[in-house]
Request: fold
Amino acid sequence: MLITGGWGALGRSLAIQLRSIGHHVVQAGRSSVEGCDAMSVDVRNYADLSGALRSLRPEVIIHLSAVFSDDFALALATNVIGAKNLLAALEENDLNARVLLAGSAAEYGIVYPEENPVSVEQVLRPVSIYGLTKSWQTQWGVLCSHRGQDVVIARIFNLNGPGMSERLFVGRINKQLEQLTAGSCDKIETGPLASVRDYISLEEAGEQLMAIINAGKSGSIYNVASGKPISMRELLQGMLRERGLAMDIVVEGVRPYGRSGFDIPVIYADVERTIALMRAK
Reply:
């Protein structure tokens, strides 16, 4: 198995889970990492990627490579062209790997409260460059499945666990908690905490992804989520409680952190399609 974006939080966690049940896993990323089960590859570079696939000849590819950038050219090159390069290189090299493309809940964008829980048939109204380019990746994957390639799409909701990017809520809070422990700050600063989201642990997400890899239908989209709504305030309270801390150290801002435009008040997933795969195994 090959995991692109293999050195992010989800890639690392998933690699551990897969190896624990006997799979040979190679983690790939732009960063150079030493080891027999690691490789440096940039999905934006077609020749580089094609050569790596010819050498490795993976049976399964979990494509996690992505950027959260608001830079349209960078997001397009990584989130869309990267996936296009991957699927084109497999076809050119006559490799019949099963490909799981990691999508995102950001593809849904604007979701009205009454539209929850969100199914994969929901109309997409992305409000970020990340969500927009991820939706294009999904469409490309579905197109390639219709052309005969074995592609499944996992639309991943919010992840909770160690090593998360500081661009994400959990990563920012974990960083501030580290600073608090080190004595370099005495408050936790956040944006508004009223929004309701769907969080899933890295380990539970890994279990759902494995079910999609093993039993998902090519061309189909599956939500990866808990299916349970939780407010950002409740989530933060839980993170603090684990460390014996209370909410009195929190300074809640009035503007969403690092975001502009429409803030979706409530979004959580319908995971019945994914759970059905897990029940069937």
In short: The chain has a mean pLDDT of 94. The CA atoms of residues 14 and 86 lie 20 Å apart. Helices lie at 9-20, 46-56, 72-92, 129-146, 169-182, 202-215, 232-241, 272-280. DSSP finds eight helices and twelve strands in the chain.
